[in-house]
């Protein structure tokens, strides 16, 4: 295989249909940011929305902004905008709370939809909060249990017995970037009589998602990674329309009430997606998210996926050619169709290697025990950024600069 040189890589950027979107982001010219799968880069529009909401609406109109500035309906408005990116028709997504809280809501609702079944199935390699929340849900339901793929059975498909009520599964694995076949696995789960709950944290905004077409039951996701909503930005939850009439979530706060301003003593849930709200939502964070989502209005999701695959494929090719024999091992799927928008390489000294990379202006991250993880956000990354990152990685490994004591792993870091 002939590797592309800098001229060929610059030509890739010149032909990129998404290249104009980079100017909408606030990026340091001295860095290559490959950590958008942890925290996305801010957009200029997000900062402008945040300033406007704080200065003109909160300071200027105070409580009148709940109606005058549309604050009260913002969770539904933003939910529908995210819905377009994840293949959900309007009225099935609401922006609210955090990913952890929304997983709790979805799992409880799923269990209630399958009375008599007591098992939740999840992945042992899931992001920890998914498992912690699943454990919490099980602890509140007498007789319920949590079974894990990779511990209690080799694969989710092998664990779908008549006691399984809900399956919590990540569309893209947070560490390896492995991509699940949503439609196929959802069909298997539902054929076994269970409910499919998808975690989209590492796929929303990174690749096309088709919740409705796949027949998904529930989905949750965050907005601060590839959607660039900002640190602590509110999460979202999807509830298929067919479930909304009977699905019940346990956090029956007043924002989920059918008539919140009637101030009634008893709770009656909204008949639609609003039922999956809980308390008063973080409006300033939502306004930043509103600005961040504006950039997506004209984005072709097929073009997004094509660029994502081009970036990750180029990275793998260059790393394996230029860093051969330097201790790296690919942990992500080699087949592009099975990969999300990130690439993971294992290395026995991953922590100091990553710190040395960061010191050179290439920002990725480390995942215990030995993973170098690189996220590729197609809206603002260029192919030349990939080349620069690989050059830095090659230099760090060949010079062994990662052995510098200042890059040693602190004892407090686990």
Strand order, biggest sheet? 2-8-7-6-5-3-4
Q: What low-confidence regions span 5 or more consecutive residues with pLDDT below 50?
A: none
Mean pLDDT: 97
Oligomer: single chain
What would you call the shape?
globular
Number of alpha- plus pi-helical segments: 12
Number of strands: 13
Strand/helix succession: HEHHHEHEHEEHEHEEHHEEHEEEH
Instruction: Indicate the structural class.
Output: alpha/beta
Q: Quote the distance from N terminus to C terminus.
A: 39 Å
Rg, Cα atoms, Å: 22 Å
As a percent range, the share of helical residues equals 25-40%
Q: Which percent range describes the beta-strand content?
A: 5-15%
Largest sheet: 7 strands, mixed
Q: Can you offer a commentary on this structure?
A:
This protein has twelve helices and 13 strands. The chain has a seven-stranded mixed β-sheet, sandwiched between helices. β5, α7 and β6 form a beta-alpha-beta unit. α10 runs parallel beside α12. The mean pLDDT is 97. It comes from Paracoccus pantotrophus (Thiosphaera pantotropha). Its cofactor is pyridoxal 5'-phosphate. Its EC number is 3.7.1.3.
Give me the secondary-structure topology.
Layout: H1 6-14, E1 32-33, H2 44-61, H3 65-68, H4 74-85, E2 93-95, H5 99-113, E3 119-123, H6 128-139, E4 145-149, E5 164-170, H7 182-191, E6 195-199, H8 211-214, E7 218-221, E8 236-239, H9 283-293, H10 301-322, E9 329-330, E10 342-346, H11 350-359, E11 362-363, E12 365-367, E13 371-375, H12 383-399
Parallel strand pairs: 1-11, 3-4, 3-5, 5-6, 6-7
Antiparallel strand pairs: 2-8, 7-8, 9-10, 10-13, 12-13
Helix pairs in contact: 2-9, 4-9, 5-6, 10-12
